[in-house]
Every structure is written in structure tokens, then in C-alpha cells.
Fold:
Amino acid sequence: MPELPEVETVVRDLREPLVGRCFRSVTCGPHALRGGRLDEVRKSSRGKNVRSVERRGKWIIIDLDGAFLLVHLGMTGQLTVTSAKAPRQNHTHVTWILDAGDTELRFRDIRRFGGVYFFKSRQNLDAHFEKSGLGPEPFDMDPAYWRACLAKTSRSLKAILLDQRVVAGVGNIYADESLFEAGLSPTLLGKNVSSRQADCLRRAVATVLRRGIDKRGSSIRDYVGGSGLLGTYQDEFRVYGRAGEPCRRCRMSIARIRLAGRSTHFCPKCQKR
DNA sequence: ACAGGATCCTGGGGGC
DNA sequence: TGCCCCCAGGATCCTG
Structure:
């Protein structure tokens, strides 16, 4: 579910209520998550103070007195701050009770593809990202690096955009929307695009992600921001989820194919192949 | 090197 | 109402 704009929205929402507060106690549900060890998270984050809440790609990073809580939302993850009085929803796997006891940070994840990790130090955190080979943030990506990434591979543009080692934070929705914005077919091979087209796509990705952030992300099924609010970028999709509907630019029917293992939406007329 | 499929899960929607 | 099938903002592993 959540891609960069959704994760960025969560992080911005969590800062105000969390920074400077202390996790007085932590409770966990009975289910294991796909990523992380919940008992370790529970024991280690108890009693710590929140210094900052940041984002890297699709990862949420919470600085706890120099140790780090790392959260990935997977497909259906929700990380929200709510009143302790609000009834706990099903599929809530971790609850951090804040110092005053009237407020809670909750991690809920219906499909349990997400993960919550604890790292003792900045070095351990960096090692985690190093090991996964996480690529650069899309907003300050070096143009030459991006051109080289495309030029050296015969993978499709769609597959490249989804690869977190090339660029961090893009997922299925924003990949499709970026390719429409750039006027390039998702099936084009990296090695076959010109440097001009590569530059165009790089800018399109940044543009589309910024639009997503401005609208507080896309709420299709399960996504909510850190305060529980829905995003509205889904109302502005040009291609994602619009198969069979007319292209907003040329009225041609939007196509849907399976590519890089994901459903892929594009305008056959506006997007060059 | 790359595509495609299966896998981890739960739930919603459509067809019958 | 029930059942079966397909689908889903992610990521990883295996096969051909």
C-alpha cells in the first residue's frame, strides 16, 4: 500500500504528537509480523524518549535516545497516534503508551506484510540499509546516476522504478503515474531510452511524488495517515486503476497489463513505446 | 540478467 | 446466504 507520499505523510503527522514524548510501556499482539521480532521491540523501546521521526524510502525511522525504531508498512500497515480511550482495532500488533498515558502510538497491519525493527545504534541502522542496498531518494537523485542505471539494463522501465535498490520509495501506483507523466511506455527497456527521456522520467517521478505528498497520499483500501486522516490523491490518478476508462488527455481507453509481476496501467496513445 | 510465478496474509467484490 | 475466484500501495525467493 504505502509508497513514499503515504509514508512521508505518516512521518509528518507523527512528529508533533511524538517528538519529546516517552514510551512508558509497550504491548504486543500474539501474531508475528513478516519483518522484525516483536518481543525485542517491546522490551527495547520501553522507557525511551522520541527524539525525531524521519523517512527513508518507504521506511519510517524513529530516533529513541540514539537507538532506532524502524517501521515498514508493507501493504496494509497503519502507524497512528490516537487517544488511549479509542477502542483498539483488530490487527493491532504493537501499542506504545506515551508518558501521560492518555495517548498511544499503534501499529496495525491486516495482512502482516509489514515489519517493526529495533536497532541499538545509528551504525546498526545504517548497516541495515547498506545490506538491503537501498537506493537514493528520488528528489535529489544524481541525473548521471539515473541515466547510467537505465542504460545498463534490459529490464522494463516499470521494473526499474519498482526496484528499491535503484531509487527508494516508488511503488506500483506512483510508477504508473510517473510513466504517464513522462509519456513513456512501462514496457520500454532501460537501455533503449535516450538520456533526454531518462531525464524526463526522473523529473516526472519527483513531480508525481510531490503531488502525492501535497494530497496526503492515496487512500484506496487501508491507508490512513499518522493522524488517521485519509489521503485524496486517488481522485487525481491519470492511469492507475482506470483500465477501460478514457485517458484524461486523449480519450483513448486506458490499458491494463501484467508487468514485472504487477498490474500496470497506461495510455497506449500518450505513452511512447 | 531477466521474467514470471509462488509465497507470506486478510478481506472485499463479483459471479453463480 | 454461501462458495469460489480474483484482486490488492510490498518484498523476497526460486525456476527456467
